[in-house]
């Protein structure tokens, strides 16, 4: 999958297209080579990025420290690193497509 890349250390890099100020936070399908994610938070003072990382940590059942924004801090196109990721979390992400 183009939006989901496994790393050598057991982690993942997610390519996301984020739509802030949505009615609710949810995954909503592919957007080109990225997974589209509607995000309820507004893009003000980093609140949307913080909400994104918290949502992904909760969705993958990871501690917040295991989720890191590695690209796109001020863009809708974002890259997020998750590490380490359990087989259960990986399966949950694969089921999105």
The CATH architecture would be 2-Layer Sandwich
CATH C-level? Alpha Beta
* Count of alpha/pi helices: 2
Shape: globular
Brief overview:
The chain contains two helices and six strands, in the order ββββαββα.
Explain this structure to me?
It contains two helices and six strands, in the order E-E-E-E-H-E-E-H. The chain is α+β, with helices and mostly antiparallel strands and 97 residues long. The chain has one domain: YggU-like (Conserved Hypothetical Protein Mth637, Chain: A, 2-Layer Sandwich). Strands 1, 2, 3, 4, 5 and 6 form a six-stranded mixed β-sheet that branches. The mean pLDDT is 94.
Mind sketching the topology for me?
Elements lengths: L3 E3 L5 E8 L6 E6 L2 E5 L8 H13 L7 E5 L5 E6 L4 H8 L3
Parallel strand pairs: 2-4
Antiparallel strand pairs: 1-2, 2-6, 3-4, 5-6
């Amino acid at each position: 999958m183009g939006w989901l890349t496994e790393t050598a250390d057991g982690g993942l890099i997610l390519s996301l297209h984020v739509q802030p100020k949505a009615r609710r936070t949810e995954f909503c399908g592919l957007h080109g080579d990225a997974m589209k994610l509607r995000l309820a938070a507004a893009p003000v003072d980093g609140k949307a990025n913080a909400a994104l990382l918290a949502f992904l940590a909760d969705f993958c059942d990871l501690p917040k420290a295991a989720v890191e924004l590695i690209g796109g801090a001020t863009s809708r196109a974002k890259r997020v690193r998750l590490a380490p990721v359990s087989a259960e979390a990986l399966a949950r992400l694969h089921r999105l497509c």
